[in-house]
Design a protein that fits this description.
5-stranded parallel β-sheet, 6-stranded mixed β-sheet, single chain, 37% helix
Length: 318
């Protein structure tokens, strides 16, 4: 396992670099990738991001300046905020066996790179990326803005329990570069489309509660997306909704990706370890935020989820 200084030294030896982000890309994976690309270019390196076909309208602008041109052949490959090669987009899968450096912060990280660095205690991978880039040279606004996107989105604008003093210290350092953090906060945390509001309303209307109302299961079937003609941008981070319900300490959001294929996201309090529950279902993540992809009918998948919670929460009752 590399240290920050060793990672910086390794990156100095790289050139013609391709940077990978994960499926259903969020602000942290895109922010880290964009900031790293900017940092490498500041060193005179040739570096690009592999275009991610699932970018939403909110995160796409941060990746756009760094997209690899068609036909680019990398000498080195780096992944950011990816715990396992199973989270590679389809166009990244050819690189699964040739990642030269993997940078991550998930406890479930699988060390798939030729070299690896992970910081499980970090609220966001962007915290670790900040230290790596600072070891390479000055943090410029071009690096700071996407890093702020990463730190703020993975902490719910610094409201989630994963936020630490280190998180705030990194955010403060980024703000001192003069970035437009106000627009980031407005776009990511204080703006919702009408379709998004309709999705949230429908989810709440069909929400099911278990375990003395401490466990909530919310569903987003394909039919719901079709009913409101909602886009991926409208559905971004819907998993945050259930955790806002008073009394709920385990919120499960079931999002149907295609018929009978469900992406589930858990957001939990201290009583439920989301990583342990999702590991039973073939997934992983953090203690308070984890996920998995499972197949089956909605009813069957719901039962599997409840059984996984029951196996790992001693006082769970139906």
């Amino acid at each position: 396992m590399l240290s920050v200084s060793e990672t910086a030294a390794l990156l100095r030896t790289f050139d013609n670099i391709l940077i990978l982000t994960h499926v259903r890309p969020d602000g942290d994976t895109v922010g880290c990738a964009a900031a790293l690309c900017a940092g490498l270019r500041a060193l005179g390196k040739t570096a690009y991001l592999l275009p991610n076909p699932e970018l939403t309208d909110t995160v796409a602008p941060y990746a756009a300046p760094y997209a690899a041109p068609a036909g680019f052949v990398p000498d080195k490959v780096v992944s950011t905020d990816i715990a396992t090669t199973g989270l590679f987009p389809e166009n990244a899968k050819p690189y699964a066996g040739r990642v030269d450096l993997a940078i991550d912060h998930h406890p479930s990280f699988e060390h798939f790179g030729k070299a690896n660095i992970v910081r499980p205690e970090a609220a966001a991978c962007a915290e670790l990326m900040y230290d790596i880039l600072a070891a390479l040279g000055p943090i410029t606004p071009e690096m700071a803005l996407p890093l702020y996107v990463g730190v703020s989105t993975d902490t719910g604008c610094f409201a989630y329990a994963n936020t630490t003093a280190d998180t705030h210290a990194v955010a403060a350092a980024l703000l001192r570069t003069g970035i437009d953090y106000k627009t980031v906060n407005k776009v990511f945390f204080r703006t919702k489309s009408r379709k998004r509001m309709q999705l949230e309303s429908a989810m709440m209307n069909t929400c099911e509660f278990y375990d003395h109302n401490r466990v909530a299961i919310l569903s987003v079937p394909c039919s719901l997306m079709e009913r409101f003609q909602a886009t991926e941008t409208d559905a971004e981070d819907l998993s945050a909704l259930g955790a806002q319900i008073e009394g709920v300490d385990c919120a499960v959001t079931m999002r149907e990706l295609r018929p009978d294929v469900w992406k589930l996201s858990l957001r939990t309090g201290d009583r439920v370890n989301a990583t342990v529950v999702c590991r039973v279902l073939g997934g992983g993540g953090h203690r308070a935020a984890a996920g998995a992809t499972i197949e089956g009918t909605w009813a069957d998948c719901k039962e599997r989820i409840l059984n996984a919670i029951a196996q790992n929460v001693p006082d769970f009752t139906r």
